[in-house]
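Expect sequence, tokenised fold; for instance:
***
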Amino acid sequence: MIIVMEPGANEDQIQKVAKKLESLDFKIVFNRGEIMTVLAAIGDKRLIDPASLASMDGVREVKLIQEPFKLSGRESKSEDTVIDLGNGVKIGGKNSPVVMAGPCSVEKEIDGLLEVAYAAKDSGAQVLRGGAFKPRTSPYDFQGMEEIGLKYLAEAREKTGLLIATEVMDTPDIDLISEYADILQVGTRNMHNYKLLKALGKTNKPVILKRGLASSIREFLLAAEYIMYGGNPNVILCERGVKGLDSHYTRNILDLAAIPVIKKYSHLPVIVDPSHATGRRYLIEPMSKAALASGAHGLMIEVHHDPDNAYSDGAQSLNPAQFKSLMKQIKALEGILTN
């Protein structure tokens, strides 16, 4: 890291900064100019909080040369990570985009879920997504079917061969959900739930990590770091939009630039959820195409057999016919992008 001292910093202030770093086994290189002094500190920056240096007397600025995410970053692994999801489905690298489709919530009647599962399979999706445990903004909203919902998902997998992805809300639920699901999902509200992330690091299941509602890309990658630090390298990053100013026209702001940025700094697969990002049915098609054109490794799309009567998020869900039409367009676009 680089520590830039104030033009008026005295020698005592400079030496205090140097001694603090040397006590943590940093090697210090001094660059003394006519106006200010700059210290180059060579060592493991995880040993010190840059903010603690920035608050010392005489320090003007602390600059990080290397990114703080060691395991999820390109510095530790230059080639793309490819994750085997099961059933021969692989995500990441040069593999074809993986499409995950299904309702926001698994509902009380299994027939609707099965209708969506068959439609998703016939249209070319590889993963059925559906929430059995639902984090909702209001405590009065539908909270999910819990284990019954998991059993419904497992039955849909048995009948269609689709892989199952569902959300984990709390650490005690990991073992139960892992018995049913192929892929575990961390929702946007839990991106900063470090206890949950640490626990998921001890599993051997692929984990979809959704970006927080107002999280920076650096915070996003550091959340992935928690899972990987625990021993689980199978993390899929999901861009699902961040909070914006205009909720009248879109639910969130889909940060398409995050896709190439993440691919530049991280080797992990990255997918996009255009449903939560936009909150509007008519925007799912153009944003799905834009996401793939931006380099996304896959999509997560909400599909419901009767969106207008869905228990949750019906306004941002496609019906099976609309999803089939979208998949045809995605296939055509994939052919263009690979040529």
Q: What stands out?
A: Residues 2-63 form a domain with the Alpha-Beta Plaits fold (CATH 3.30.70.1140). The mean pLDDT is 94. The chain has two domains: 2-63, 83-337.
